[in-house]
Amino acid sequence: MALDVTSCLSVTGVLTVCTVTLLSIWIWKAFRKASMFQRQGIPGPPALPFLLQNHTLMKEMTVAIQRVVKNLHNHVKSKAETGEEVELKADVPGSYTGTQKVRDHLPTSKYNDFLQLLVEAEREGEAQGPVDAEIDHGDQLTTSKQWTRKGLTTDEMYANTLIFPDGWQRNVSTVMSFTLFDLAGNPDCLAKAQAEVDAKLGKVANVNTFKSYGVAAKDRQVTYETAMELAYLDMCMNESMRLYPPGFILDREAEEDMEFAGYHVAKGMRMGIPVLSIHRDPAIWPDPMKFDPERHTPEARATRHPFAFLPFGMGPRNCIGMRLAQLEIRMAIATILQHFTPVLCDKSVYPPKLQKLKFESQDGLWVKFQARA
Ligand code: HEM
């Protein structure tokens, strides 16, 4: 009998532990989801600060990025083996609105991604009707009264589904392409970047062996932590974004009548901010067309106006994907440099010239990859 009570108690104990664990995971997931909404300016319950630090999410993202980086590595490897010339270019996204329409008719539990969050936000908005709300944009903004309702309209949702793949796929691959091309065109900078990667990651890594975050470090695969330590690579990426910023014009609307640089700007007037011209202004950047990553040391940065460098925009409506983009680009380029050396080839025209009104190189960004010994 005593034995029965003991086993009964231990079964109850195990069940309690399981229930509490499952409940905690469920609450954690629910709050994590809510926090993603909040960071996109969509109202919801506040994030649990101790669980939902940005870097925790970033670490999780690292696993997903590692998978993509592995495929990228294998692709570059096949090109390096044949000695083929490779054109680095941005991948333009396909139709996301069509995908959303399909999902409208499917159970929400089937998907757990950004598009699904938007679909649900729209449904939530429709169900709740107009709400007079102040939105807290976390560390980016204090408050805003622009939003008067929970959720998103169909148009807003479409706009977001377009801007996300655009930022995620096109801008990230554009910056990656130009950075690799700039490194190929500047062997001294390339050697320095490779030396940094070698020092932080080691020369050899088997990208096909990693299973999850943490295992990678053992295999000297780039991780969140090591990516954060690649300061020189970051400077190279910044220098490429200075010369070739995908967001080459930003626009803003005047909230009130104002005088600016001797001009009267009426309320509601839209102004274009010429990022490309600012980034190439010789008064700010001496010898502006020279690829010189040293312009982005902390000391050099401190001497410039913060608005002199605007690859991700500035202010409350700056790029919300900035940190993710920086992490992705560092991880991808670090892995490539760890294994391969990008070099200019017969088809390369360096420095690249941008097409008019189109953010693409006139002659393509052609390189060859050489496997490192
Ligand atoms: C290297 C890659 C990227 C570059 C160069 C870039 C650049 C920019 C720029 C210049 C803006 C306009 C900012 C302003 O007007 O002040 C912007 C806005 C935005 N970006 Fe990115 N972006 C990149 C990656 C991403 C990624 C990965 C995402 C999504 C995960 C993303 C999502 C957005 C969104 C949603 C906005 C609109 C923000 C708002 O209107 O409040 N971007 N981006």
What does this entry look like structurally?
- It comes from Batillaria attramentaria.
- Pfam families: p450 (PF00067).
- Belongs to the cytochrome P450 family.
- The chain is mainly α.
- It has helices at 2-39, 54-82, 97-104, 114-128, 154-185, 187-201, 215-218, 224-228, 231-243, 275-279, 298-302, 322-339; strands at 85-88, 249-253, 258-260, 263-265, 270-274, 340-344, 365-371.
- The chain has a three-stranded antiparallel beta sheet. A two-stranded antiparallel sheet has the order 2-5.
- The longest helix is centred in the N-terminal third of the chain and has 38 residues, at 2-39.
- It is globular.
- Mean pLDDT is 75; it is low at 36-54, 91-100, 130-150 and 210-218.
- Residues 163-164, 167-168, 171-172, 175, 246-247, 250, 311-314, 317-321, 324-325 line the site of protoporphyrin IX containing FE.
Largest sheet, in brief, is: 3 strands, antiparallel
Poorly predicted residue ranges: 36-54, 91-100, 130-150, 210-218
Question: Which small-molecule species are bound to the chains here?
Answer: protoporphyrin IX containing FE
- Compute the gyration radius: what is it? 24 Å
- Structural classification: mainly alpha
Brief synopsis:
The protein has 373 residues and is mainly alpha-helical. The protein has helices at 2-39, 54-82, 97-104, 114-128, 154-185, 187-201, 215-218, 224-228, 231-243, 275-279, 298-302, 322-339; strands at residues 85-88, 249-253, 258-260, 263-265, 270-274, 340-344, 365-371.
